[in-house]
Amino acid sequence: MRILHVEAGRHLYGGAFQVLHLVRGLAARGHDNLLVCPRGCALAKAAAPCAEVHELPLHGDADLTMITRLYRLIRAFCPDLVHLHSRSGADVMGGIAARLAGVPVIHTRRVDNPEPRWWVALKYRLYDRVIAISDGIGRVLLSEGVPPAKLRVVRSAVDHDRYAVPVDRVAVRARLQVPMEAILIGVIAQLIPRKGHRVLLGALPDLIATHPEIQVRFFGQGPLAADLQRRIESAGLAAQVRLAGFRHDLPEILPALDLVVHPALMEGLGVSLLQAAAAGVPIIASRVGGIPEAVREGENGLLVPPGDIAALRAAISALIVDPERRRALGAGGRALMAREFSLAAMVEGNLAVYRELFGSGGLLRG
Q1: 318 CB contacts (<8 Å, ≥6 apart)?
Q2: Is residue 203 one of the residues assigned to a domain?
Q3: Neighbours of 164 (CB within 10 A)
Q4: Which part of the chain is the Glycosyltransferase subfamily 4-like N-terminal domain (predicted)?
Q5: What is the pLDDT of residues 111-141, one digit of tens each?
Q6: By residue range, what is the domain housing residue 153?
């Protein structure tokens, strides 16, 4: 099978990392991949061994010229289908280009942001199938009017073996400037409002007053960096809370954490949660979107209402004082990831959707 993939993300995390796992898995199974991605993005280099990579200018939702560029590639590559992996214009412009070329098209939805019903009615007519990466996103799509016959759920996956390895905790903590006796809390997320960093900052002053051994590191980058730094300093938290930036050594860092906190206000699933669970780190997260699929209450973490500072504070405090419970939740996370979030299951799930389009079910446009 020949598949043309379109991914508009510039950084190799979240959805782009899932695309990399998918094209690797497809190539290993004998399928041909052509990957369209932005010029100079990290995904292009990483995917080169398993896909023919075309780096194009992808300028977002208003880039109508993207239709022409993608149409020409589709006509030249002659794929069996087009798989659109992101928004930022690639979803709509890619859908139009595929329809003009007469090629089946699939769109993967990775976020649970609501869309107006009138827009859903127009946009999702472009796709033969829509893949949601969680049941939570699937419920949002159904509520907005996406036909059930078009919708499939294929969960994101994690390279379990990459994260389930022993690490030198002393060396990692020294790298992060964290004492060995500290309780090290990590937040792994883009620095954007919906990830809820401000909620955690609201809970920390009282927590640190009770548990002065707490150290927090925000791993990620984004437009909120300056605002978060100001809030950290104004709250007198600079000695305990630091912005650690985007890290390529996350597989080494994660097992050295005592706790991952993800206070998101909206979340499709949360790849960083899958990574943390695979590394055996207990998680405290918001009960929102697809998070309860990745964080099972009492199995690999605790869930709190989104935006509830008091509940978040109480959950963190409960795990800080109970190392045995933290260890049990960490072990539960490793087992859950191996059981339900394997790379093989994700690749086979996508392949099953591809094969549907050429099986007895036929195409379901409109």
Answers
A1: 302, 325
A2: yes
A3: 19
A4: 14-162
A5: 888 889 999 999 999 999 999 999 999 999 9
A6: 2-157+342-356
The model carries a pTM of 0.87
H or E element, residue 262: strand 259-262
Beta strands 214-219 and 129-132, pairing class: unpaired
Q: Per DSSP, what are the bridge partners of residue 245?
A: 219
Instruction: Return the bridge partners of 129, or none.
Output: 106
User: How far is Cα of residue 231 from the mean position of the Cα atoms in its chain?
Assistant: 26
Q: Is the Cβ–Cβ distance between 67 and 96 less than 8 Å? A: yes
204 contact partners, CB below 8 Å, separation of at least 6 = 214, 216, 235, 237, 240, 241
Looking at the fold, whether 143 and 225 belong to one and the same domain comes out as no
- The 3-state DSSP composition of the chain as helix, strand, coil percent (nearest 5) reads 45, 15, 40
| Residue 248's CATH number | 3.40.50.2000
Residue 132 C-alpha from the chain's centroid? 12
Structurally, how many domains does the chain consist of?
Answer: 2
Check residue 107 and report its DSSP letter.
Answer: E
Q: How far apart are CA 94 and CA 66, in angstroms?
A: 8
Examine the domain organization and report whether 115 and 193 are in the same domain: no
Query: What does the pLDDT look like over 85-99, one tens digit per residue?
Result: 987 788 999 999 999
pLDDT score of 362 more than 70: no
Q: Which residues neighbour 217 within 8 Å (Cβ) at sequence distance 6 or greater?
A: 176, 178, 184, 185, 186, 187, 241, 242, 243, 244
Q: How far apart are alpha carbons 179 and 153 in whole angstroms?
A: 43
CA 162 – CA 275 distance, rounded (Å): 9
Residue with tokens 């792994």: 188
Per-residue pLDDT, 101 = 97
**Residue 346 and residue 206 share a domain:** no
Report the percentage of the chain scoring pLDDT > 90: 83
In a domain, 303, yes or no: yes
Encoded amino acid at 216, one letter: V
Sign of CA dihedral 12, 13, 16, 17: positive
Least confident of 4-8, 61-65, 245-249, 349-353: 61-65
